[in-house]
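Appendix C reproduces, verbatim, an entry submitted by the partner laboratory led by Prof. M.T., so that reviewers can inspect both the input and the predicted structure.
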Amino acid sequence: MKLFFLFLLFMVFYIYFGYPLIIGSFSIFKKSQWKENETNLPFVTLLIPVHNEERVIRRKIENTLALDYPKGKLEIIIASDASNDKTDSIIKGYEMEGIIFYREEERSGKNVIINNSIPKIKGELIVFSDANSIYKPDAIKNLVKNFQDPKVGCVCGKLIYVNDKGSLVGKGESLYFKYESMLKNLESNFGVVVTGNGAIYAIRRDLLFPLPNEVPNDFAHPIEVRAKGFKVVYEPSAIAEEKATSSIKDEFKRRVRIVVRSFSAFIYYQKKYNILKSRNSFFFISHKLLRWFVFPLMIMIFSINFFLTGYFYQFFFKIQLLFYMSALIGWVFQEIKIKIKIFYIPFYFCLINLAGTVGLYKYFIGKRETIWEAAESTR
């Protein structure tokens, strides 16, 4: 039992610490730099799918029109997924400034918007964005400079969460994405960034393909690009900002949806490409697949540890008790609006891993997520 306990403990350590240590050690031999070449910037299409974004769409359009990229080389398409608020009328007010607008009359989800946009796109590179993502002025320039390498097929930018309300959920989300950015930066040295972020990433036009409804586009595109033999890299200087989630309910539901859709994508592409036997399987298994099962590992570690004797095991059991009590206190403090930073790490760690287990459960009982509902607290 002790050996099994130590194995489980090693697995959790490996998922969060061992994997980045391994790729960090080897990445020092893989670094490459691409310098920006402004004399021959490519024609870019910025595609922004929206649904009922009246609260944020005006700011997004103003931000997009102010980007530091040649106007004659930037096509801006905003596609409404059957919005029924003021979103469409706000967008139409900017058509004279070069915004291209079209609307789907029946709500079908982001992937249908993307699939139906493919024939309309003129850019040799396509940048995908969200309505609540605010770009730094040089974000697109910094994304596209990586495509000077003909082997690069997809470039993921950096998402920064702005936690205006100072909530524990927002702090946890911000820290989590800093960790994710570190992993992507390391994976980028091998050209195998496992997943993008829908807020800011770019792909070559000739690598676009129709997406199944149940998979997240920022998960599917990197898999398809790698399967076609191209590199997926990370560009930390291409920055987008979003408002962090301030609601536990919103963040939990969002995390559950992410896992349901991501696991759906894993099953789909495992059947299509047998990704667990591909040369990039180490990165996918370590970064994504194992992490979906962390919460059951945590339960087994705690349960087995309860029955183990010896100073080390008793000490570690007390550490676990302290950790979970801190998570519980963090949840209570979030609810009553008390902000004490020490509690947000255990609280958010437990929150997202529990959501991962719920997401897997929903997948295996047949639940699917084809329509994305934006978290209200992020608008």
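The chain has a mean pLDDT of 90. Additional entries are available on request from the coordinating office.
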